[in-house]
Write a structure and sequence with these properties.
Elements lengths: L3 H16 L5 E4 L10 E11 L10 E12 L3 E2 L5 E3 L1 H16 L4 H6 L6 E16 L2 E14 L3
Parallel strand pairs: 1-2
Antiparallel strand pairs: 2-3, 3-7, 4-5, 6-7
């Protein structure tokens, strides 16, 4: 029952698979799968008791990060002519992901994924950062979440 971080990652992955168009692949954190690009990686980084009182109640405030990763190579057609630049490919993938996450009731949409073992009471985007990691562009979208485990 207390694997709420993994269940949160499962819910975000299911949600993005259903709501990001195109060829974006979606992975959960801590997976052994070899990443293929473009992709989004859903990772619940840290959690803490969420309670107005000083007692434990099972509700967890969780820092979730969605890393949108693209290769730093342009898209080419069959003849080798550039169709889109690396920058455009990255911004398109990031835009599609942010468009799926930029909702006032994201927690409701995550609950609608019916991932067993987790219920969301809050989810909203906060910070977004961009960086280069070798030959990859990485845009990290942070989502502030409150969720609790649910008996399966």
């Amino acid at each position: 029952m207390w694997i709420v971080e993994e269940k949160i990652e499962d819910a975000f992955a299911a949600y993005l698979r259903a709501n990001v168009p195109g060829t974006m692949r979606v992975y959960t954190g801590w997976t052994d799968e070899e990443q293929q690009y473009p992709c989004a990686v859903c990772c619940a980084r840290s959690s803490n008791n969420e309670n107005d009182e000083a007692t434990f109640n099972g509700h967890r405030r969780v820092d979730v990060e969605i890393a949108v990763i693209t290769e730093a190579t342009p898209e080419l057609d069959a003849a080798g002519k550039q169709i889109r630049s690396s920058r455009d490919r990255n911004s398109d993938a990031r835009d599609a992901t942010i468009s799926a996450l930029a909702k006032t009731a994201l927690h409701t949409d995550l609950n609608d994924m019916n991932v067993p073992g987790v219920k969301f009471s809050m989810a909203h985007m906060t910070e977004m950062t961009r960086e280069v990691d070798g030959r990859h562009f990485v845009s990290t979208i942070k989502v502030d979440v409150i969720a609790n485990p649910v008996q399966i």
